[in-house]
């Protein structure tokens, strides 16, 4: 059941570069944000339609991202946190992720705006987790 009163959401997937699990926390996008995102994905410039999907994805990720999982990101092997109560807290955590991990934000928006029905982590019957490769979508 999707809880319509829930403000915070969480998605976990495996990072293709580090091989580690990445957890991102986000708020549900509004209808207006979805429409604006799709409108910004293609832009007209000098009478031509130009793909702008990556820029739109990264910009909208920044808008709805509310946090990062503990230990998911670091600088020079030192973890950073989005939690103000953590000793690893970095006030500019969102800017750091946007600057250094746009591929993560790109994937995140594909999963939340374009394929919101995708299951990033499938739970097996024995309680274990299996990461869904990002090139596949879940069947259901």
Task: Explain what the structure shows.
The protein is an alpha+beta fold and 140 residues long. The chain has helices spanning 31-41, 53-64, 93-100, 102-114; strands at 8-14, 21-27, 42-45, 48-51, 65-68, 73-75, 78-80, 121-123, 129-131. The radius of gyration is 16 Å and the shape is globular. It starts with 7 loop residues before the first strand and ends in a 9-residue tail after the last strand. Residues 122-126 and 132-140 have low confidence and may be disordered.
Overview features:
140 residues, alpha+beta, three-stranded antiparallel beta sheet, two-stranded antiparallel ribbon, disordered C terminus
Present the secondary structure layout.
Layout: E1 8-14, E2 21-27, H1 31-41, E3 42-45, E4 48-51, H2 53-64, E5 65-68, E6 73-75, E7 78-80, H3 93-100, H4 102-114, E8 121-123, E9 129-131
Antiparallel strand pairs: 1-2, 2-5, 3-4, 6-7, 8-9
Secondary structural class: alpha+beta
How much of the sequence lies in strands comes to: 25-35%
- Biggest sheet architecture: 3 strands, antiparallel
Physical arrangement of strands within the biggest beta sheet:
1-2-5
Summarize the amount of helix as a percent range: 25-40%
Low-pLDDT stretches: 122-126, 132-140
- What is the overall number of helices? 4
Mean pLDDT equals: 83
Radius of gyration, rounded? 16 Å
Compressed to H and E, one letter per element, the order equals: EEHEEHEEEHHEE
Estimate the global geometry from the Cα principal axes.
Answer: globular
